[in-house]
Amino acid sequence: VFAVGDGLVVAAAAGEVPAGVRSLEAFQARMLALKRTDEAEDAQRLLALLEGRPASPRNGKQSVPEDYEAILLAWAALGEELSGVLRGEPGERSQLLAQWVSCFGRYAQGVRHLNRRRTAIGLGPVTLDICGSWGAFLHARYLSLNRENPSLDGEEIGGRPGYTPEGAAAVSSGSHSVRGSLEEAIDEWLCCADPSLFDPKMGRACLGGGPGWWICLSRGGKASEPTRSILGFPADGDEGIPPAFERRVSPGGFYVREAPYKGTVVTVRFLRGSPGKPSYRLLDEAGQEVPVMLVWAGNPFRFAAKDPLLPGRKYRIEVGPGG
């Protein structure tokens, strides 16, 4: 028995292929049969990571297929299968890899939520860069190991528990959140008009991390044309919108200032020019104005309810030209 890098342990018997490699090869063959070269390349990158070889991030080139749900389910199933294989192997890295691949289903659920929000906003859906989440997962672990000794802006410091070059790179290149769930983090990014999630040109996303710390990175991809010229979150007809907004302080020191507002944040982006000083208001079910305040002027601009909204109620957003 020998180890390939620090990853999959394989039997040396002639012609025997380890279970993890068989699973990856089957997944890759299925993706090629579906003509999904992005996911087939991701399988090659994943094998490299499991075997301890470099696996550079790659931008996707394909749009979201109609049967993308089947691909997300396949990623989740592959993660669970690989996790079972890796948990039976010796070494700390194998155990970390097992924890990471077991999160594939969680990342798939995150991109489902993101695509539901983007579709309601008027943006095209995105595909998921699974392998890009390895660095984010490692940085989440670094933060959990250094909660009592945080560093400025959450940057990783060499020599501290859990430091890795991959984790250090992830923290410097993405949008971060310290929400409990990935879905909550996505809604926070949309409230803040995150340049990636609100980007009409975004066609591929990397969602990663773990409970209590999340990251989002844009991986290019082939984007669909927006269906609206004015984009807004919360979107018309969308549901499950957070009634309150509170940026939490992370172990690394993110979001240290308390916001002067407590209610839902509304974000509006004009794709074909914008009024210099747009008018805006928020109405409750009875048509009464809800007290709001301007959060950010520009395009996109944001305003927020001063107090938390009432759960289970419907609200109306009105935006128009200034004056």
Describe the structure.
38% of the residues are buried. The model is unreliable at 1-7, 9-15 and 248-257 (pLDDT under 50). This protein has helices at residues 19-33, 37-50, 68-87, 92-101, 104-121, 133-145, 165-171, 182-191, and strands spanning 2-3, 9-10, 127-128, 175-177, 204-210, 213-218, 230-233, 265-270, 279-283, 289-290, 292-296, 301-305, 316-320. It is globular and about 65 Å long. The chain has 323 residues and is α+β, with helices and mostly antiparallel strands. The strands form four sheets. The chain has a four-stranded mixed β-sheet.
Percent in strands: 15-25%
Shape: globular
The low-pLDDT segments are 1-7, 9-15, 248-257
* Rg measurement, Å: 22 Å
Overall SS class: alpha+beta
Describe the strand arrangement of the main beta sheet, using strand numbers.
3-5-6-4
Helix content: 25-40%
Q: What's the end-to-end separation, in Å?
A: 76 Å
Tally the helices: what do you get?
A: 8
Main β-sheet description: 4 strands, mixed
Instruction: State the order of secondary-structure elements, H for helix, E for strand.
Output: EEHHHHHEHHEHEEEEEEEEE
* Mean residue pLDDT: 82
Strand tally = 13
